[in-house]
């Protein structure tokens, strides 16, 4: 038992934040389980060949993804002292793989060089105080909407990962983009595992059982392993074969030890893209990457800190500068290690829901990522269906903040609505933030209350206009 007032307790402010070591450890495990899928998913996303036909290599990307996530998450815990975990950012890695890497002449080192440059630029913005100032300039109503939006987003991630809600393939573009299960029906044992886990987790949370979320994950994982061993269900996608009754991505299975391949570290070519695309083309791509990682992290940070109860009465987050510094380093180190930008994960909400309140939980999560680097295939033991219930429950906890929005003030209410609806609907935190910021500036101006708009909100709204206009700009430049 950790004594109140001990060095560890004082450093992480464990007692001060109403937590204890066992909660922090449980929270660290819950966060790791909730986001460990990235070690498998990131190599799949970055699996394409560059213009020379070279690939990054599945095993190397998996090992380095785990290594970088572990180092940055430990740094977040030790330096910023918040229960936030980092890993390769979904959305940014897809943009890098699908949009950036497909430019003729670009190699993977050139592509990752753009990520590094975006991170360096962001670090400069943090060190000059600009990024913190933007955070403080956001109205409280919009900050609340960010929390609600992330809650909806994280719940949708859970439902989709579990296969309870699925994307509907529609060539004609005439149907609703998502639907219940497969063809409107819930199918397969994996979905049953999710439903069981959700009922169990909700029941444990309502009964205020310690370790409710972690118990739900572990119990569902054990059931998943037993089902897979006896019924040989397999993944939903294997090569060109699709099995609607299979596991979402990871079919739970045991595997052995493998030496980590860290050869990708230091391979980025910082200015290589400029030689192939020219100054304007390369700068535009780096700008889009910068905007995405800039605002995604800010939104996630607000949502998680609110759920953890670490935002003060003035709406400020303790050590916010340190949080943003580590996040900026995530882009620099992630790009430099060829696994794309690393950023704060909304799935850290699973650990916070388990009771994590301090950086000690992040250190636990980071150490688990470093262990996973040696047993990369071992994370396949925990399927999405076992983790998804935790994300849905945590999403509910965050959406409960919606009552704090002033719905009578349309200048805040409409931007808030756009913020928290577009985050899950577009599968992007940045898109929701952009719509909210731009609409806030427009509506306040229409109301004749432009003087109430912080100057930085004008700047941010203008930046988002450029962000949304990237498509037309690229078309005009013939890119």
What is the rounded distance between the termini? 61 Å
- What Rg, in angstroms, do the CA atoms define? 22 Å
The count of DSSP E runs of length 2 or more, i.e. the number of strands, is: 6
Largest sheet: 2 strands, antiparallel
Helical run tally: 19
SSE sequence, one letter per element: HHHHEHHHHEEHHEEHHEHHHHHHH
- In the predicted model, the low-confidence regions spanning at least 5 consecutive residues are none
Widest β-sheet, arrangement of strands: 1-6
Number of domains as seen in the coordinates: 1
Which structural class is indicated by helix and strand composition? mainly alpha
Name the beta content range. under 5%
What tags apply to this protein structure?
about 475 residues, mainly alpha, two-stranded antiparallel ribbon, about 5% strand
Write a concise synopsis of the structure shown.
Helices cover 62% and strands 3% of the residues. The protein is mainly alpha-helical. It has one domain.
Structural notes for this entry:
The protein is mostly helical. It has one domain. 62% of the residues lie in helices and 3% in strands. The strands form three sheets. Strands 1-6 form a two-stranded antiparallel sheet. It has a two-stranded antiparallel ribbon with strand order 2-3. α8 packs antiparallel against α15. It is globular and about 65 Å long. The N and C termini lie far apart (61 Å).
């Amino acid at each position: 038992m950790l004594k109140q007032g001990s060095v560890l307790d004082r450093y992480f402010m464990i007692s001060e934040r109403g937590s204890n070591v066992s909660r922090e450890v449980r929270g660290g495990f819950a966060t790791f389980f909730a986001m460990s899928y990235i070690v498998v998913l990131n190599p799949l996303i970055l699996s394409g060949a560059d213009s020379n036909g070279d690939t990054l290599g599945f095993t190397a990307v998996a090992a380095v993804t785990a290594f970088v996530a572990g180092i940055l998450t430990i740094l977040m815990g030790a330096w910023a002292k918040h229960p936030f975990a980092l890993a390769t950012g979904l959305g940014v890695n897809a943009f890098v793989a699908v949009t950036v890497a497909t430019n003729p002449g670009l190699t993977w080192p050139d592509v990752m060089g753009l990520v590094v440059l975006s991170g360096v630029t962001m670090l400069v913005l943090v060190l000059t105080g600009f990024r913190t100032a933007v955070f403080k300039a956001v109205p409280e109503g919009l900050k609340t909407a960010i929390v609600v939006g992330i809650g909806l987003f994280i719940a949708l991630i859970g439902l989709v990962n579990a296969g309870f809600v699925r994307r509907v393939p529609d060539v004609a573009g005439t149907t609703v983009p998502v639907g219940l299960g497969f063809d409107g029906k819930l199918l397969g044992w994996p979905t049953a595992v999710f439903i069981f886990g959700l009922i169990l987790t909700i029941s444990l949370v309502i009964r205020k059982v310690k370790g409710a979320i972690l118990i739900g994950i572990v119990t569902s994982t054990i059931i998943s392993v037993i089902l897979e061993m006896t019924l040989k269900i397999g993944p939903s996608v294997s090569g060109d074969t699709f099995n609607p009754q299979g596991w979402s991505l990871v079919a739970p299975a045991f595997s052995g030890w493998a030496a980590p391949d860290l050869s990708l570290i230091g391979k980025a070519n910082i200015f290589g893209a400029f030689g192939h695309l020219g100054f304007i083309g390369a700068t535009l791509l780096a700008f889009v990457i910068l905007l995405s990682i800039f605002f995604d992290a800010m939104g996630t940070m607000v949502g998680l800190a609110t759920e953890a109860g670490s935002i003060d009465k003035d709406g400020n987050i303790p050590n916010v500068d340190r949080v943003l510094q580590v996040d900026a380093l995530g882009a620099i180190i992630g790009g430099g290690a060829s696994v794309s930008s690393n950023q704060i994960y909304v799935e850290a909400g699973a650990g916070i829901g388990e009771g994590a309140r301090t950086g000690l939980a992040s250190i636990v999560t980071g150490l688990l990522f470093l262990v996973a680097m040696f047993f990369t295939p071992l994370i396949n033991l925990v399927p999405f269906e076992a983790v998804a219930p935790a994300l849905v429950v945590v999403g509910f906890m965050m959406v409960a903040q919606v009552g704090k929005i002033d719905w009578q003030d349309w200048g805040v209410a409409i931007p808030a609505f756009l913020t928290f609806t577009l985050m899950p609907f577009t599968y992007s935190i940045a898109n929701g933030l952009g719509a909210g910021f731009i609409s806030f500036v427009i509506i306040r101006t229409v109301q004749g209350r432009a003087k109430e708009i912080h100057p930085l909100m004008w700047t941010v709204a203008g930046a988002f206009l450029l962000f949304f206009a990237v498509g037309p700009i690229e078309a005009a430049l013939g890119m």
